[in-house]
Design goal:
mainly alpha, two-stranded antiparallel ribbon, 6 helices
């Protein structure tokens, strides 16, 4: 059974790709959604490429990525950008990435293209949502830092 640390290189690659994507909102914006989707796709594809079934690869990826999200919520000094709403959006974006990883297990470029196309289509359709104020929020929901990509 792989450890979360086995997937750190994929996380680093996803951070780099999302940073260079030109998308706004690296903290809870479209670039953050892109990073989550790409990391989840990479984790899932790597598991699928070991010969695991779709169900097994998706379950292990979901568990590993979910552990990462749980760790972020339970830190003693939580990041103000991490809250239950952003956590739910991260999990949703992870699910999209898991599906991409199952659809395109062989080619990193194909996974990147599928995710970029999904994000572009969602942003063109104005499918962006803003979270409600919460305990971690200042009450100011500036669109550039507090918007989340929601892909239906």
């Amino acid at each position: 059974m792989p450890n979360l640390s086995d997937f750190v290189p994929f996380a680093n690659r996803a951070v780099q790709e999302s940073s260079f994507s030109g998308l706004p909102g690296r903290g809870n914006g479209p670039a953050d959604a892109y990073r989550h989707m790409l990391w989840a796709a990479e984790v899932t594809a790597s598991l699928k490429n070991t010969g695991l079934s779709d169900d097994a690869a998706a379950a292990i990826a979901r568990n590993a990525l979910g552990l990462h999200e749980s760790d972020l919520l339970s830190t003693p000094d939580p990041n103000p950008l991490v809250n239950p709403y952003s956590h739910q959006m991260d999990l949703q974006n992870n699910e999209i990435g898991i599906q991409v990883g199952l659809q395109a297990p062989g080619s990193y470029e194909q996974r990147v293209t599928l995710i970029r196309d999904s994000i572009f289509e969602a942003s063109q359709a104005s499918n962006l949502t803003v979270p409600p104020p919460d305990a971690n929020s200042t009450g100011s929901l500036a669109p550039d830092t507090r918007t989340y990509l929601k892909i239906a």
